[in-house]
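Researcher: Good morning. I'm working through a list of sequences from a screen, and I'd like to move beyond sequence-only analysis. For each chain I'm collecting a predicted structure so we can compare shapes side by side. This is the next one on the list. No need for commentary yet; just the structure.
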Amino acid sequence: MHLRPSTRVALSLRRPRGTIAAMTLTIRDSLPGDIPALTAIYGDAVRHGLASFEYDPPDTTEMARRRDGVLGAGYPYLVAADASGQVLGYAYASAYRPRQAYRFTVENSIYVAPEAKGKGVGRTLLQALITRCTAEGYRLIVAVIGDSANAASIGLHAACGFKHAGLLPNVGWKHERWVDSVLMTLPLGDGAATPPPPGR
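Model: Good morning. Structure tokens for this chain:
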């Protein structure tokens, strides 16, 4: 796996009393040592949220297997860490569908630790992932968002340029209710304006 240089981003955070605090995030490629943090972040999303349609959080062995699968297929897997090195969120791209005609389209996944939500971590991660996917020649990124009431994720993707592409109503059952999937898309690079490069 080829690791790219880390990117440091300074975020200005408004606290409840109106004071501004600065936080420096490092966006970097995921490392094996991140697995416990990734497992904890994703586990919280599985137990308490609708971003994932899983019922049971995977353990560290399974999370490592999944991460290795993403990286082994050549997709980017990024983490955001604070100045102390604590992982506050992660994002990765993966195949939207396995058949060859879909090879220029990726699906994004993004998860943020509960204590870091609403502080710009998700947006910084998503922007970095978009940049990486564009540089790697993908032409479309698809977000499959758990539930039409998930205003935070829908708003995050919209702020990064994604447009609504469809709705799968009541496609899942979780937390004792029916859950929609919202589809949003973002063209990358030339999008559909030009053919893909030959031989790929």
